[in-house]
Specification:
It is built from 15 helices and five strands. It is mostly helical. It has two domains: 207 residues, HUPs (Rossmann fold, 3-Layer(aba) Sandwich), CATH 3.40.50.620; 98 residues, Tyrosyl-Transfer RNA Synthetase (Orthogonal Bundle), CATH 1.10.240. The protein has a three-stranded parallel β-sheet. α11 packs antiparallel against α14. The structure holds adenosine-5'-tetraphosphate.
């Protein structure tokens, strides 16, 4: 083909769909914070992008004391089912298990070699988690390199995540830039996508701490899980920590009240003035009741779809096998380029 023909073929081609990679660790049951900060955002934007949604089971091993093989396998399938139940179309989007693709740990090794220790030492998640276990595995320390591999293998443009992952997305950019500088252009530099409200849902029992799966396993009033029945949702939200006043304004509320207001805002999409008008000056009982209702209604269709998906024998295994094949095509191509550039 002559040059002019290439030019005209390029200009008439449709614009490239932006690529998204995101994932959740199968370390317990997903909670409403995971849904708002990540899953609902993925579902909302799924038709706009080419999406790869991973179940990050290798990351779950970073705290090996908590792992039981049978439970991890079951939990990975539960996460896959919850992705679909939350509205992610498994045909249009690629859903896969991280551990099914050796390209992930392979690239993680290469990236680990170009990541200075100081960059990893700065990670706040490492500092927090290493303080919580008696013996700290090197996997917990180097896990951001694996996370960078997860993202860079797909040449992702965007990584839709909660606020707690911002530092990790920034680190991924730094690692990609360092590799590209040392060996030649291989990776696209990704950007994080965050919600303006709901990117950091706080624990109901302690609104100064981010809601997390691991804390939810230890403390019953901490989180609402996506599979909680209505009576449990009610019990958790009605006992949420607030304060002794009746201030229900976003700007002045105490952390617990603000958490409830933001949950209500993000799930109902009502304007702030309307929400403040409804709840300000009243006791927090009415706010808690309204949040309970909206959370129960949000979870109802998710739980119904979850029951359907998990009652079909073989469905999830087939889906994950096909997802691994589709993801592998892209991941292996990027890995081949990284190997060629590094001489491996
Ligand atoms: N509280 C949250 N608010 C908004 N988004 C959140 N995410 C997590 N917590 C919140 C987002 O959910 C995705 C999956 O993250 P994860 O698997 O790390 O979930 P987790 O609940 O944080 O799990 P763990 O195992 O309990 O981890 P730690 O102990 O680190 O909290 C991500 O997009 C995350 O941002």
């Amino acid at each position: 083909m002559v040059e002019g023909q290439i030019e005209s073929a390029q200009t008439s081609a449709p614009p490239r769909k932006k690529i998204v990679l995101s994932g959740v660790q199968p370390t317990g049951v997903l909670h409403i914070g995971n849904y708002i900060g990540a899953l609902s955002l993925w579902a909302q934007q799924q038709h706009e992008f080419k999406n790869y949604f991973m179940i990050a089971d290798m990351h779950a091993l970073t705290i090996p004391e908590n792992i039981k093989a049978k439970e991890l396998r079951a939990s990975s399938r539960r996460v896959a089912a919850l992705y679909i139940a939350s509205g992610i179309d498994p045909e249009e989007n690629v859903i896969f298990l991280q551990s099914a693709l050796p390209a992930h740990p392979y690239l993680a090794w290469i990236l680990g070699c170009v990541t200075p220790m100081g960059w990893l030492e700065r990670m706040t998640q490492f500092k927090t988690k290493s303080g919580q276990t008696e013996s700290v595995g090197t996997g917990l320390f180097t896990y951001p390199a694996l996370q960078a591999a997860d993202i860079l293998l797909y040449q992702a443009d965007y990584v839709p995540v909660g606020e707690d992952q911002r530092q990790h997305v920034e680190l991924t950019r730094d690692i990609a830039a360092r590799f590209n500088h040392l060996f030649g252009k291989c990776f696209r530099l990704p950007e994080g996508l965050y919600r303006s409200t709901g990117a950091r849902v706080m624990g109901f029992d302690d609104p100064t701490a981010k809601m997390s799966k691991s804390l939810a396993e230890q403390r019953s009033g901490h989180a609402v899980n996506l599979l909680d029945p209505p009576n449990v949702v009610k019990k958790t939200i009605m006992s949420a920590v607030t304060d002794s006043g009746n201030e229900a304004r976003f700007e002045h509320a105490s952390p617990g009240v603000r958490n409830l207001l933001e949950l209500y805002e993000v799930l109902t999409k009502e304007p702030r003035e309307q929400i403040e008008g409804r709840f300000h000056g009243q006791g927090y009982g009415s706010l808690k009741k309204a949040v309970t209702e909206v959370v129960v209604e949000t979870l109802r269709p998710i739980q119904e779809r979850y029951q359907q998906i998990t009652s079909e024998p073989g469905y999830l295994d087939d889906l994950l096998a096909s997802g691994a094949e589709r993801a592998g095509e892209v991941a292996n191509r990027t890995l081949a380029k990284a190997r060629q550039l590094t001489g491996l």
